[in-house]
Amino acid sequence: MAFFIPEEKITEIKNAADIVDIISGSVLLKKSGRNHLGLCPFHAEKTPSFTVSYEKQIFYCFGCGAGGNIFAFLMKKEGMTFPEAVKHIAGKYGIDIPAESMTPEQKKRISEKDSLLSVNKQAMDFFCKSLFEGGSGKRALDYLNKREISEKTIRNYHIGYAPAGWNTLYNYLIKKKILPGRIEKAGLIVQRSNSPGFYDRFRDRIIFPIFDQNSQVIGFGGRVMDDSLPKYLNSPETAVFSKSRSLYGLNAAKSECRVTETVYIVEGYFDLLSLHQHGMRNSVATLGTAITPEHVQMLRGIIGKDGKFILVYDSDDAGIKAAYRSIEVFDRGYADARILVLPSGYDPDSYLVKFGAESFRKAVSGSLGAVSFLINSAIKKHGLSVEGKIRVISELKTALASIADGVARSLYIRELAEKIDIDESAIHERVKDAQTGRKNGKTLYGSNGDGIKADSGAEGSAAGWNGSASGMRKGSRLERQIIAMMLQFPEILPEIQKRNVMNNFTDEILKSMGKAIMEKRCSREIKAPGVMQVFDDDEKNRIAAFLAINQEAWTREDCIRLMTQFEYSRKRHKDTSTKKIKAAEETKNEKLLFELLREKQIQAQKKRKYNLKASGGETL
Length: 620
Hints:
Blueprint lengths: L6 H10 L2 H5 L6 E3 L2 E4 L11 E4 L4 E4 L5 E3 H9 L3 H11 L11 H5 L3 H21 L5 H9 L4 H6 L3 E3 L5 H8 L4 H6 L3 E3 L6 E3 L4 E7 L5 E7 L8 E3 L15 H11 L1 E5 L2 H9 L5 E3 L7 H11 L4 E6 L2 H17 L3 E6 L6 H18 L2 E2 H13 L3 H16 L4 H15 L3 H16 L18 H11 L8 H12 L4 H7 L8 H14 L16 H12 L6 H31 L3 H25 L6
Parallel strand pairs: 12-13, 12-14, 14-15
Antiparallel strand pairs: 1-2, 2-3, 3-4, 4-5, 6-9, 7-8, 9-10, 10-11, 15-16
C-alpha cells in the first residue's frame, strides 16, 4: 500500500502537518527551550525524556530510544500501517488523496484494519437504527430511559440495540456485500459448532460502541436487560481491539482529562455514562478487566506526570481486591492513584442518581492513596488483637513488597507500624521475605488469575528498549557524527559524495542510512524532517531521530574538519592493521597472524556483501 500514495502527496501531507499538534492528542507536552517535553507513551518514566521538535517535526525518547517522524509516531502508538498514518493525517488537515492515483487492483488491497473499522462502523449504524426504528428497540429504549440515560447521551455515544434474532446483523452486513470472513474477523459473528454457517455474537442486548482515541469504532460491549448471563459481553480480541489497551469513553474524556490533570476510572458502561451526564467528563471505564500497565501508560501521557488517578469501586470487597491488583501496576507506572469505595449497595451510577454530583465529589475528596486504603481496610477487617495484627501484616506484606521505590515502601511500613503499634523492623522482615518470593518469580496475590508476575511491567520493557534501541550505540563516534551532520546540514552532501565518505564506513546500518540520505536528498532540497521516511525499519528511524533531535551549529568548515578527521582515522586504522600483520609475519606469531588475517577477511566479506545488496544483487 505504501506505493499507492504518490511521493509528492506524502511530502505535501508532511509539510502541512504539525507533529506537536498530533502528539499532543495523546501526550501532555510542555515547551522547554526549542523543543517540547512529555512523558514517553512507550515506556513508564518519572521524569519526561520524550522530546518533540517542532522545527524538525520529529520525536525522540532519551529513555527508551523510540523516535521518528509524524508517521512513525502514529504507526507505533496506534498500530497503524504507513498508508493508514498518511491517510489519517491527510484527513485531519483536509488534504485529499486522489482516488485516480490508485489502480483498480491497488484499491482492492485495503488493509485488514481499515476493513475491520469499516465493518464496525456499519454494525454500529445498524445497532443505532435498531434502537430507534421499529418495535424491537422499544424495550431497549425504555430500559435506557429507566436508567436515566438521556436521549442526548444515547445519540452522542451512539448507543444501540442488537435485535433478538440469531442472524439479523449477519444478514444486514451480507446485503452490504461484506464477506462472512471479514465479519467474523471483526468479532461480530460466531461460527456454528454443529452445523454450517454463523450466528450473531450480540443478541437482544443494549450495545455500547467502543471507540479509540481517534473516535474510530474498534469494538462493542453488550448488556442484557434482565438477569441473563453473562450480564456483559464484549467483542473478542481483534486486529483493532484489545481490552488491555482500550478504555470506554476515552475519546470523549481525553480533553477534560488533560485540562484537569485527573481521571476517574470506573468498571461499567453505565457508571461512565452517569459520570459524564453529571459533568465529570474526565472519566473512563475498563472493559471487564483490571487496570493494566498499558492503561496507566496511556492515561498518564494525557494527564501528565503529576496527574491523579481516582479508581471508583462499588463495594468494599471489590474495592479491596481491585486495589491489591492495581498497586504494582500504578507503582511501576510512577502514577499517583487513589481509591474511592462507595457505600455498600451503590455503584457510581446509582450513587450519582440518588445523591448527586456534589456528594460524589465530596466523597472523592476523602479518598485515600491505594496503600493507605489497604492498610485501613485490613485493620478494619482483622482488628487490633494480637491475632488481628498478625493477619494484617500477612495480608499486606506482598502489597508492600511490590512497591519498587525503597523510600516510599519505608514510609508505608512506618505508617502501618504506627497504626497497629508494631516495631517497624518486624514488618520490614516480613516484607523482605515477600520480596524474596517475588525475585524467585512468584506472582503476587495468589494464583487465581489476579496476580502480577514479579518480573512484568513497564520498567522491564524500558530496560529491553535501552539494550538495543538507543542510537547512541551504533557505529563509531565519528560515523554517528557524520550521519548527524548529513541530517542537519544537507548542504554538505555533494562534498560527502565527492569524497566517497560512505565507502569507508564500517557500521553497515549507518552506511545504509548514509547511502539512503544521499539518494534522497542530493536531487532535491529537503529539510531534516523529510529524511525520516527514507528509512525502511524502526531501528534506522530511532537512530536518525536521536542524531537529528539536538541541533548543532554546523558550518561548512566544521563539516570539512569532521570528514578530514574521519578519513585520517580510517587511514590510520588501515595502516595499523597492515603494520600488525607485517609484525606478526616477522615474529612468526602464527596465532596472531591468523586472527588478524581472519578479521581482515571478515571485514572484506562484509563490504562485498553490502556492495552486492546496494547494487540489487540481494534485497536489503
